[in-house]
Specification:
57% of the residues lie in helices and 4% in strands. The chain has five helices and two strands. Helix 3 runs antiparallel to helix 4. The chain is rod-shaped.
């Protein structure tokens, strides 16, 4: 120790050999606090996504996009909107509509099958042979008037 130096130095002053204990302790403390605050921030930031994880896929994706927008733009309104959307349950309109569509398809298939079957039955009816058919006579081309005189039939129907 230098003869001009005081005999008693406070504990926070670094000794002359170059090792500063308080600098090392504060560095470790600062790194630990930064990691802790960063972890807390990211867990708080992902809270809406974790809440919406058990909801519908579309709702989860919207909340995730709002969370990413809030993270990258620092507009906290996106985070609040994502949190509110994650808290509410959006009714499932898709399942009943899919069931209705499936039932309508079944009904349409049943009716179309019935129409096809009835058409097949109608075409499979006994068709008389060609020689059994009688030719149409020319009697239809003339019609009788009320007084009995024959008049040719008009060409319009």
């Amino acid at each position: 120790m230098h003869p001009m130096a005081p005999h008693h130095l406070p504990f926070y002053l670094a000794p002359g050999d170059g090792t500063d204990i308080s600098l090392v302790v504060m560095g470790i403390f600062l790194v630990a606090i930064l990691v802790g605050v960063g972890t807390l921030y990211l867990r708080l930031h992902s809270l809406p996504e974790r809440m919406a994880h058990k909801s519908e896929k579309l709702q989860f994706e919207i909340v995730a996009v709002l969370g990413l927008l809030a993270l990258f733009t620092h507009i906290h309104l996106f985070w609040v909107a994502g949190l509110l959307l994650a808290m509410i349950d959006i009714p499932d309109f898709g399942t009943p509509l899919r069931r209705i569509a499936g039932s309508v398809e079944k009904i349409a298939d049943t009716q179309s099958n019935a129409v096809v079957e009835s058409e097949q039955e109608a075409t499979s009816a006994v068709i008389p042979p060609a020689d059994a058919l009688t030719p149409i006579t020319d009697d239809l081309s003339e019609k009788k008037s009320e007084n009995g005189a024959e008049q040719p039939m008009s060409s319009h129907v």
